[in-house]
Amino acid sequence: MMKNDAGISKEALTGSLKDYRAPTGLDLIGRTDAFFGWQDERRRQSVWPYARTISSPPAANCEAVSDSNETLSGVNFGSQDYMSLSSHPKVKQAAIDAIGRFGVHSAGSAALLGNTALSRELERSLSEFVGGREIVLYPTGWAAGYGSIQGLVRPKDHIVMDILAHSCLQEGAKAATANVHFNRHLDLGSVKGKLQRIRQQDSKNAILVVTESLFSMHSNTPDLKALRELCDRYSAVLLVDCAHDLGCMGENGLGQLEAQDMLEGADIIIGSFSKSFASNGGFVAVKTRAAAEYLRYYSATTTFSNAMSPAQAAAVLSAIEIIRSQEGKKLRRALLSNILKLRTDLSRAGQEVLGVASPIVPVHVGDEARGRIISREMSAIGAIANLVEYPAVPLGQSRFRLQVMAQHTDSDIETIVTAFRNCMDNTAASDGTNKLAADLNAKNRGVSAA
Questions:
Q1: How far apart are CA 188 and CA 183, in angstroms?
Q2: Cβ of 162: how many Cβ atoms within 10 Å?
Q3: Do residues 192 and 240 make contact, with C-beta atoms less than 8 angstroms apart?
Q4: 272 pairs with which residues across the strands?
Q5: 35 CB-near residues (< 8 Å, 6+ apart)
Q6: What is the 3-state secondary structure (H, E, C) of the chain?
Q7: Interior angle at CA 358, CA 354 and CA 359, nearest 5
Q8: Any residues with CB less than 8 A from the CB of 164 and at least 6 apart, and which?
């Protein structure tokens, strides 16, 4: 087994998840062995950076256990608790009080006795937050994204979707219609071309244009007003998934919808509670009661899933109250200050920082092999961050997705910057690592077409 200068086998530094996405053969279970063999080799070499288990709150500093049972501790830039509300005393107490009043389980779908008084209160609070829209709650943010499309779009309809839209949106689209048209990322000309061609052939059926307000792998944003204009021109409906900026960005916490004056311009708004609202769950916001009621009974991921638990609903309610208060504004300002400091310090340290200022700070690495070694070394020195590699991002463009919290201190930021710079410098000095990275790219180019 060939090893490089870092003592890691070539097998652990080559290959990708895409290689095992579509196994074939009669043995439905046994054909998973190849993936496990590759994964386990990476696990043995400590370059499998996924499935870590946290053993403390997801705070700015935390403790965790790796997938191979190695203990990790240190500064945490791998959790998406952007507003640092998951351990807020008021949020925790709200969840405790809800358990005392309602128990721990919803015990039914929202259509069949699963809601509590807290669910109804949460719908009203969210409606006020997003400008008076009708709200439909979902058990997860993924379910909200999937269900919003699957629940409204029918087989003869069309979907024009950014090629980098989240999995939940893509899977919802595939479940709804075969007429899915992917536009180039943030390319208005591509969107226009798709809409023109659809309307030339079909003037009777609906078109849904799907985008995100903040794309989490690149930290970039669409021109929402320009998309609105295109939707108006071609009689299309605009859906905006606001998972990563709602609650944590903007003076009032409304993210890019607020920054671009598009709160009213989006026809359908998707939100996730798992980033800024200290809980699992999500919601769809629409402009009419009719659309909301239709989703409640035709959107499978709410109709046929248990409703949010009472504790989850209570936690989100408390989080919204904080987000809309002066404390929330203070937390967003602290978060933005941390974001700007991290981006500035990384750039000064010679690192390539991608996208625009947001709680997600992607730092370009490049070669997948190098990224895996850096991830191992950072964990070993107490710097916890998430590696993103092909096929989640383009081949040869692996990166670390640093996720910033309001609770991070200047010292936390300086620690992660120093750790990242030192690990980048150490791997750059390894000719063996660079050779294996080149081998990885050559191996995967033959299967890189999505």
A1: 8
A2: 24
A3: no
A4: 282
A5: 20, 23
A6: CCECCCCCEHHHHCCCHHHHCCCCCCCCCHHHHHHHHHHHHHHHCCCCCCCCEECCCCCCEEEEECCCCCEEEEEECCCCCCCCCCCCHHHHHHHHHHHHHHCCCCCCECCCCCCCHHHHHHHHHHHHHCCCCEEEEECCHHHHHHHHHHHHCCCCCEEEEECCCCHHHHHHHHHHCCCEEEECCCCHHHHHHHHHHHHHHCCCCCEEEEEECCECCCCECCCHHHHHHHHHHCCCEEEEECCCCCCCCCCCCCHHHHHCCCCCCCCEEEEECCCCCCCCCEEEEECCHHHHHHHHHHCHHHHCCECCCHHHHHHHHHHHHHHCCHHHHHHHHHHHHHHHHHHHHHHHCCCCECCCCCCEEEEEEECHHHHHHHHHHHHHCCEECEEECCCCCCCCCEEEEEECCCCCCHHHHHHHHHHHHHHHHHHHCCHHHHHHHHHHHHHHHCCCCC
A7: 105
A8: 185, 212, 215, 217, 218
**pLDDT tens, N- to C-terminus, the chain (450 residues):** 545 556 889 999 999 999 999 999 999 999 999 999 999 999 999 999 999 999 999 999 999 998 888 888 999 999 999 999 999 999 999 999 999 999 999 999 999 999 999 999 999 999 999 999 999 999 999 999 999 999 999 999 999 999 999 999 999 999 999 999 999 999 999 999 999 999 999 999 999 999 999 999 999 999 999 999 999 999 999 999 999 999 999 999 999 999 999 999 999 999 999 999 999 999 999 999 999 999 999 999 999 999 999 999 999 999 999 999 999 999 999 999 999 999 999 999 999 999 999 999 999 999 999 999 999 999 889 899 999 999 999 999 999 999 999 999 999 999 999 999 999 998 875 544 455 455 545 554 443 332
Question: What one-letter code names the amino acid at 428?
Answer: A
**Strand 207-212's sheet: what is its strand order?**
134-138, 282-286, 268-272, 237-241, 207-212, 158-162, 180-183
Structure tokens at 222: 């669409």
Question: ω into residue 359 within 30 of 0, thus cis?
Answer: no
Tokens of 430: 């390894």
Q: How far apart are CA 227 and CA 224, in angstroms?
A: 5
Amino acid at 95: A
* Predicted model pTM: 0.92
By the 10 Å C-beta count (0-12 exposed, 13-18 middle, 19+ buried), 450 is classed as: exposed
